[in-house]
Sequence to fold (151 residues):
Amino acid sequence: MVLSTMAGTTTQKVIELPKVENTSYKVVKEISNKEVENMMSTEQYVRQYFSDIPIMIQIARCESTFRQLDDDGEVHRGRAVREDVGVMQINETYHLDTAEKKNYNIYTIEGNTAYARDLYVRQGTRPWNSSKACWGKYATPKGSAELAIAK
Fold:
């Protein structure tokens, strides 16, 4: 069971050992973020997490080609704008303070996608307009991809 993910290159996995004479032991093994990501691919995670908002799946494909981490295990950053991080390319300059206030860690896949959902509810697809040429053809005709706020 994975207990938590961190912005660094490791997370902790607790391994339960069999009881010996009424004593239980836990061994904490350091595993890399890449190993965690391999347990469920980023694409699978995004497709499952945004199954109710299909345009966000297309945005992740266009923004990061479904990468939360690079091959070295570090968080994926934008080529053009280095402040864009993770699978949803959340910009640190504009969103890090708000994300942290809302307790989202944009350097983890869970926090990156959760903040992206929060951002989508507040602003629709506008934060990702720079890649609209790629994902725009998947937007719904009634504009629900532009604004997700329930009225």
The first helix runs from residue 33 to 39. DSSP finds six helices and five strands in the chain. The chain has two domains: 2-37, 40-138. The CA atoms of residues 28 and 56 lie 35 Å apart.
